[in-house]
């Protein structure tokens, strides 16, 4: 078996950015998308790494993303910040709104960033970590397109609807979790299909609503929510908060507007940032020190905190480079050649 090729984070970022610039994206779109994709590879989360490039390019070629979009910041000085993505990628809009969001959360205790009219493809942890680095706790969520049956249902209605949270830990990696409210991310089923692997039982139903382990049948049918009715309720909450409440598309509406699950969905995103220092003001104890006691107690029982595997992979990538298989390198070369 050929040995993997190792690229530095900077080298892979240059390659991926170049692919998107050649595809017609402007600088802010290309660099923000590339940074998120490379973060997926850096942290060994393959379902959010360079595998995502092809889907981004299909969506650009189909005219569903405005390659020249310049995110428009709308802020009246209060705790609500809005960025109109203008039909571009959510990553570019977040890069414009995040500094204002962190500043307002620190000043006012809590602030929210609404991103409208964006195309979304990415994990949420890079956004969350941007905010924890600024010293604020944060929540992020967004719909998707209808691909998940509600608990007790048989047909796609909800999105995979990712939900992420982060807590800053001064001098240490933040506490971060990021998960789909479906039992797995749709990208995991795509990877099973590409690799010819069957799915674990309980992941999906086919187009007739019958349980299936065939990834082809699952993609034609519906995924299932994690935790049964609990995951279904959280997913519905995200449809309401990050869809209806912010004046953007819910997952069924996004699928209706797109007409296909082969392209990336367009909708909105909601990010809420909070200042632990402001919330705890006047109360005894340092909120960060108290949080450390809790997190250390969890780890002291042998439990793994979420994202520890990602952070370990990140350290290895920063030290040794990102490992890409021969097939992955061939894909990158093909994409670079256009």
Automatic annotation (TrEMBL):
SUPFAM superfamilies: L-sulfolactate dehydrogenase-like. Belongs to the LDH2/MDH2 oxidoreductase family. This is Malate/lactate/ureidoglycolate dehydrogenase, LDH2 family. It comes from the Bacteria. The keyword Oxidoreductase applies. It comes from Paracoccus isoporae. Keywords: Oxidoreductase. PANTHER family: MALATE DEHYDROGENASE (PTHR11091:SF0), OXIDOREDUCTASE-RELATED (PTHR11091). One of its GO terms (molecular function) is oxidoreductase activity.
């Amino acid at each position: 078996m050929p040995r993997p090729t190792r690229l530095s984070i900077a080298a892979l970022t240059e390659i991926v950015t170049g692919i998107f610039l050649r595809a017609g994206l402007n600088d802010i779109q290309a660099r923000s998308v590339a940074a998120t994709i490379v973060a997926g590879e850096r942290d060994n989360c393959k379902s959010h790494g360079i595998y995502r490039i092809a889907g981004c390019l299909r969506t650009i070629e189909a005219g569903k993303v405005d390659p020249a979009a310049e995110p428009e910041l709308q802020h009246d000085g209060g705790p609500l910040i809005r960025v109109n993505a203008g039909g571009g990628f959510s990553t570019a809009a977040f890069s414009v709104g995040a500094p204002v969001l962190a500043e307002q959360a620190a000043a006012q205790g809590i602030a929210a960033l609404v991103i409208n009219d964006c195309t979304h493809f990415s994990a949420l942890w890079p956004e969350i970590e941007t905010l924890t680095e600024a010293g604020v706790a944060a929540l992020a969520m967004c719909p998707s397109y209808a691909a998940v049956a509600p608990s007790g249902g048989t047909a796609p209605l909800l999105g995979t609807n990712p939900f992420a949270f982060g807590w800053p830990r001064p001098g240490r990696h933040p506490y971060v979790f990021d998960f789909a409210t479906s039992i797995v991310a749709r990208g995991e089923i795509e990877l099973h299909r590409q690799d010819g692997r069957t799915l674990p039982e309980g992941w999906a139903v086919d187009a007739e609503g019958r349980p299936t382990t065939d990834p082809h049948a699952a993609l034609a049918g519906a995924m299932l929510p994690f935790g049964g009715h609990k995951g279904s309720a959280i997913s519905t909450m995200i449809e309401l908060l990050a869809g209806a409440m912010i004046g953007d598309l819910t997952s069924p509406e996004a699928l209706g507007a797109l007409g296909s699950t082969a392209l990336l969905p367009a909708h909105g995103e909601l990010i809420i940032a909070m200042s632990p220092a402001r919330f705890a003001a006047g109360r005894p104890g340092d909120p960060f020190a108290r949080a450390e006691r809790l997190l250390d107690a969890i780890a002291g029982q042998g439990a793994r905190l979420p994202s520890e595997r990602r952070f370990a992979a990140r350290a290895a990538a920063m030290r040794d480079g990102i490992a890409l298989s021969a097939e992955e390198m061939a894909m990158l070369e093909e994409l670079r050649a256009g």
